[in-house]
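Illustration 12: Fructose-bisphosphate aldolase.
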Amino acid sequence: MLRWDSTKNKACQILKVAKDGGCGVQAPIALLIHAATKAARSVSVPIAIHLNHTQDKSMIRYAADELPFDKLVSYCHARGIATEAEPSRIEGGGDGIADTADLDGTLTTPEQVEDYNNTGIDFLAPAFDNVHGEYNQRGPILDNDRLDQIRLAAAGRVRLVLHGTNDFPEDTMKRCIAGGIFKVNVNRLVLNDYLAYIRQNSHKLNLTSLMEQDVRHARKLVEWQMEVCGSVGKA
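Figure caption equivalent — predicted structure in token form:
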């Protein structure tokens, strides 16, 4: 079996450039995966496609039954695929969650970083009071000290990535980048205006016109987040 060489993987290459440039790169949600893949292969800047939280039951069952975690990493690496792990996951909701102070057991620890690094993963998505879904009215209040401890424990052996960015103010995102985050999964941050435009105009415009206009709204937010993450001009 060929030895895994992360320098030949596009996702790893992109995050190395981010590390060297002191910036973060966005990972916007893509629902039309075939269209996204075709676009990624046709543009002049490097783009990687990331499978996040697979919903294929047969794939999950096979992985759970046949492949212990480190074997799953090896399975992907043998096929030239980089791997990402999320040690724990805190769910938000329509009203957010009241407080994460009593959920310390679900937050990532430096010891977990070591355990996951030993499996051979490439990227780690730590939990430090970030949540999947919506935050409460206070917005995100992150444990930046924990993130700093995680970064020190990772010691550059795995790249840190961020999940749960809905409602992030600019200063919160910038602090995460400064704390060693190199990839940022974004959903509503780059889709809010797009979704609002669809709601307001779906009964007024034909489908083609609607798609042309709403994509422009999403593009503006993507460009804004590129500025926030410091990745403009660093492809």
